[in-house]
């Protein structure tokens, strides 16, 4: 009754092809952005912002990156963690080589490095697909992990082997480093994520994105219809790794503050793949929903025994978390293989025809 | 020039100079290769019969070994514990078929693959919850496996062969032979191959998919238990094995996803290659190359022969 497009007439192509053609959608997004940019920094406490919102946004960006590759182009990848690492380490190197350059430029620029690495490891995708590709991306994962440990130049030969974030200011406000406030970091992360999501949605709607989806649906047919597999697949790898790289740089610079190789191990690649599949393959909204689910679930699970007044020791709780995450993944795959985004679409359809069943 | 010498000449000089050490490295490679082959065998069994890429094979190995050790720790005699561990694997196979596979028939491959990742997460949690996360030693002696070692004099030096490694190679050979006979001679084996060829055609001649899947997962469970015992005897039983088990993937790439002999030969190639590369060339790169060598080898291999050594050539049509 309230949510329907009846009566909203489009009089030119521009309106018709807008990202959000329905008025209610535009209002909802506007409201969301106001909540995210104004209400959360104003009302949220440090724990909420630092342990929930920032990781959620960063992993959303990484999930968008993987979704571009897996959901839109159909190439499975287990190397996301390592590509995030490339972003983080290159950002770290750049901050030590160019200390005066604005940190935001460096964070976004570090995505370019991981894009190049991603393109190199994406080359085999021209000849192989499916699980074979999983192995080549795993090669990227383990090889890059080894590079992060062995090549001392990457972490400036410090003894711990970890990269630590230097303090950087922007317009007189401390953005990175130990003394940056969570709210500042949150706002920076949020801005980058919003802009990059907007860019991603436009790439996907455009010629490049359509080429990706044709490759996903049937690559030989796409080739016959004039899509060049080389350009389509490699560009997907590049854009995907770019997003992962920026997410990795943000993860270290705006969330963790310091990182070792373990922050980019294969488990993170799995987690991000979970986010994409649970959220919905081929859906930007799904990337956000999947990231929210996977990042917030452990926090919620950790809080439940306390609320119920049970005393479970920390180790057992950790194991139970693993079990619940595993079981929930299987449950979701059985119940809704198209992910949370599909549930959302069903809900929207129901709203549209409400109060009638059809 | 120096670099070229270090890459192309020096390792071979070393190999020729100390042949006993070279043989020892080869033996190590052979043993590691056997273990990779065993893990890969578990993958191939399930992939052949259900088209599911079972990511949980690695954790199944850990889980089988842990339940064996766990039962023994409760005071159950070793052989009975072995039997009980098999029962656990059978129960697991039945549950997986019932709860996961049956519900996910006809879903795309990636969904099934994700489900097995979910399964492996669940099993990691369950295993740590029941048995605790710390490494445990395998009950090698109680199972009647040999422990000593034989020293052989070769070319002015010695090569040490651990008896447990010889036993591992023998057991692997027996398993492979047994599986080969099972696949080609028995009724169930033929049914398995029929399912692997074409699900629908198999159904139409009256083969029960559900039953076949449970059997195949149980067979993979048996392989997992054997692998777990052998691996546990060499190092401890710990969850770290799960990452090692990922190396079965490049093994499968080399051998081809559907070929049992391919899994064996692929495993051996990776085992030999990894050890030789680590010992003779690894120091040039700063060591620790074992972690990625297998994957990079598979990656390079894929560029030239995407279907693997023994895989069927993939022909695609629009």
Distance between the termini of chain A: 13 Å
CATH class of chain B: Mainly Alpha
Instruction: Figure out the total of helices of chain A.
Output: 14
| Protein structure class of chain B | mainly alpha
Number of strands of chain A: 4
Helix content of chain B: over 70%
Instruction: Please list the strands of the largest sheet of chain A in the order they lie side by side.
Output: 1-4
Q: Nearest-angstrom radius of gyration of chain A?
A: 21 Å
What best-fitting shape of chain B do the alpha-carbon axes yield? globular
Strand order of the largest sheet of chain B: 1-2
How do the helices and strands line up, and which of them pair or pack?
The complex is a heterodimer of chains A (358) and B (318).
Chain A: H1 13-16, H2 23-43, H3 46-72, H4 80-97, H5 103-122, H6 131-150, E1 163-164, E2 168-170, E3 173-176, H7 182-205, H8 207-217, H9 219-224, H10 229-256, E4 258-259, H11 266-279, H12 284-308, H13 314-335, H14 340-353
Antiparallel strand pairs in A: 1-4, 2-3
Chain B: H1 2-17, H2 19-50, H3 57-73, H4 78-101, H5 109-131, E1 149-154, E2 157-162, H6 163-185, H7 187-197, H8 199-204, H9 209-234, H10 241-245, H11 248-255, H12 260-281, H13 290-304
Antiparallel strand pairs in B: 1-2
Helix pairs in contact in B: 2-6, 2-7, 2-9, 2-11, 2-12, 3-4, 3-5, 3-9, 4-9, 6-7, 6-9, 11-12, 11-13, 12-13
């Amino acid at each position: 009754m309230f949510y329907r497009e009846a009566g909203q007439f489009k009089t030119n192509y521009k309106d018709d092809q807008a990202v959000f053609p329905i008025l209610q959608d535009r209002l909802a997004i506007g409201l969301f952005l106001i909540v995210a940019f104004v209400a959360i920094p104003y009302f949220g406490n440090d724990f909420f912002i630092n342990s929930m919102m920032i990781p959620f946004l960063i992993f959303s960006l990484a999930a968008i990156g993987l979704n571009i590759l897996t959901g839109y182009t159909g190439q499975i990848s287990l190397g996301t963690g390592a590509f995030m690492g490339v972003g983080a380490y290159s950002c770290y190197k750049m901050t030590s080589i160019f200390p005066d350059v604005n940190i935001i430029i460096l964070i976004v620029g570090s995505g370019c490095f991981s894009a190049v690495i991603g393109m190199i490891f994406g080359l085999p995708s021209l000849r192989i697909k499916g699980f074979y590709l999983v192995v080549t991306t795993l090669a990227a994962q383990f090889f890059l992990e080894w590079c992060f440990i062995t090549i001392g130049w990457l972490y400036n030969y410090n003894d711990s082997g970890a990269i630590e974030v230097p303090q950087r200011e922007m317009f007189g406000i401390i953005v990175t480093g130990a003394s940056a406030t969570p709210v500042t970091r949150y706002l920076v992360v949020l801005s980058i994520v919003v802009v990059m999501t907007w860019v991603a949605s436009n790439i996907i709607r455009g010629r490049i994105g359509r080429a990706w989806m044709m490759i996903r649906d049937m690559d030989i047919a796409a080739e016959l219809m004039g899509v060049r597999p080389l350009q389509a697949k490699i560009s997907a790898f590049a854009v995907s790794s770019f997003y992962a790289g920026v997410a990795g740089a943000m993860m270290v610079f705006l969330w963790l503050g310091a990182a070792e190789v373990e922050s980019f191990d294969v488990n993170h690649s799995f987690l991000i793949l979970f986010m994409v599949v649970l959220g919905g393959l081929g859906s930007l909204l799904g990337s956000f929903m999947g990231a929210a689910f996977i990042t917030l679930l452990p926090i919620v699970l950790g809080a439940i025994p306390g609320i119920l007044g049970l005393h479970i020791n920390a180790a057992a709780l950790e194991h139970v978390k693993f079990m619940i995450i595993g079981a929930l993944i299987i449950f979701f795959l059985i119940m809704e293989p198209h992910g949370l985004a599909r549930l959302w679409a069903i809900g929207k359809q129901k709203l549209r025809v409400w109060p009638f069943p059809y | 020039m120096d670099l070229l010498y270090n890459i192309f000449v020096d390792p071979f000089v070393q190999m020729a100079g100390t042949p006993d050490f070279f043989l020892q490295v080869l033996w190590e490679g052979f043993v590691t290769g056997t273990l990779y082959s065993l893990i890969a065998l578990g993958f191939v069994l399930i992939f052949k019969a259900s088209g599911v890429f079972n990511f949980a094979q690695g954790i199944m190995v850990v889980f089988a070994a842990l339940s064996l050790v766990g039962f023994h720790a409760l005071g159950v005699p070793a052989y009975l514990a072995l039997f009980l561990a098999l029962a656990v694997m059978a129960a697991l196979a039945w549950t997986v078929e019932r709860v996961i596979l049956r519900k996910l028939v006809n879903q795309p491959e990636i969904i099934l693959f994700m489900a097995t990742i979910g399964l492996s997460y669940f099993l990691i949690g369950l295993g740590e919850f029941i048995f605790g996360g710390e490494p445990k030693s395998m009950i090698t002696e109680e199972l009647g496996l040999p422990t000593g070692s034989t020293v052989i004099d070769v070319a002015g030096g010695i090569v040490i062969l651990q008896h447990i490694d010889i036993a591992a190679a023998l057991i692997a050979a027996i398993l492979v032979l047994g599986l080969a006979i099972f696949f080609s001679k028995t009724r169930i084996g033929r049914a398995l191959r029929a399912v692997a060829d074409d699900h629908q055609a198999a159904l139409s001649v009256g083969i029960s998919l559900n039953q076949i899947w449970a059997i195949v997962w149980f067979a993979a469970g048996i392989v997992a238990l054997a692998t777990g015992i052998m691996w546990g005897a060499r190092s401890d039983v710990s969850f770290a094995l799960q990452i090692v088990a990922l190396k079965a993937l490049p093994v499968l790439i080399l051998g081809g996803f559907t070929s049992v002999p391919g899994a064996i030969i692929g495993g051996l190639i990776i085992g030999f290659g990894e050890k030789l590369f680590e010992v003779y060339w690894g120091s040039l790169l700063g060591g620790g190359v074992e972690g990625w060598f297998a994957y990079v080898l598979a990656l390079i291999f894929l560029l030239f022969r995407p279907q693997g050594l023994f895989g069927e050539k993939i022909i695609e049509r629009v």
